[in-house]
UniProtKB/TrEMBL annotation:
Gene3D superfamilies: Ureohydrolase domain. This is Formimidoylglutamase. PROSITE patterns: ARGINASE_2. PANTHER family: ARGINASE/AGMATINASE, FORMIMIDOYLGLUTAMASE. SUPFAM superfamilies: Arginase/deacetylase. It comes from Flavobacterium kayseriense. It holds the Pfam family Arginase.
Amino acid sequence: MEKLLPFTKYDLAKVTNHRSGEIKFGEKMHTVPKDIDPISFLNSCEAQYVLLGIPEDIGVRANFGRPGAASAWNVAIQSIANIQHNRFCKGSNLIVLGQINVEDEMKEVEHLDFTDIDDRSKLSKLVEKIDKDVSHIICSIIQLGKTPIVIGGGHNNSYGNIKGTALAKGKPVNAINFDAHSDFRILEGRHSGNGFSYAYEEGFLKKYFVFGLHENYTSKSVLDIIKKTDDRVRYITYDSLKIRKEKDFNLEMFNALEFIKSDYFGIEIDLDAIPNIASSAMTISGFSVEELRQFISFFGRHRNATYLHICEGAPDLGEKKNNHLIGKLIGYLVTDFIKASTVEI
Ligand SMILES: N=CN[C@@H](CCC(=O)O)C(=O)O
């Protein structure tokens, strides 16, 4: 895990606000001790869930998007460290592994211009480099029997999550994606809009379900491709669920689970599906936070749920005064996922 920047107990102490009479997650979560190999530590630690940050937005830049997703990890870990450790959820069930070291890559892209064809190709190459690191770390975590909770970063990291999971399990895996976009776009060089299509094309992704696609932001060509692969790729649109009310949210979650549950699956959450959450493709129309929480709680309950990835949140693009809110939202989602596994289906 050379590309891992471990989160130390001092880092954790710095972000935990101690209050007498209370126990915060930051006082109970595990960190990799200095001079101990992360793999040996993961192997010996009893906690099931492994927090990993990917503070990059190179895939978003390569997709003509607005940078900012690199800032989610920092605000997320600050919020998670200050959740109350109690009978409903225990901080001691989490290992804060750290973040993928993308400092050099982020420096390299500072002056790249995505409208320049050569620069765009450099951006895509850097995304490929990060893909390798993500898939390697995810594979190692899953091989040790742990459950990764990944905080992105752009949605390009779905590729590394899916590939790492498939390599660890020794077979292609499935994915459910709560998203306004399919990210199943053409293979034109890696970016945040084609993580799933690359994983599918390369044989790591078997079945894929997109939950809540926005009809206005899905191209005819993507819809045509999906139509031809109906046995393996399906979707339900946000508009049919929440606007025209032709479909029922709970029933469609059930149907989506029926589709993907035959194999291990990853739960992918793009925060651009939630209105007014700062992100590259921020929206004013979308699912509520409660619906998203119910979604994670529902899918996280299944024994084949193998990882959770929360991405595209970009606190740096939001209002300065309230940029902790994305961290707070991510904290709710992380604990909903952990709580879900105690009611396995
Ligand atoms: N991960 C996001 N992908 C979307 C972004 C859409 C946008 O920037 O408007 C996509 O490529 O379709």
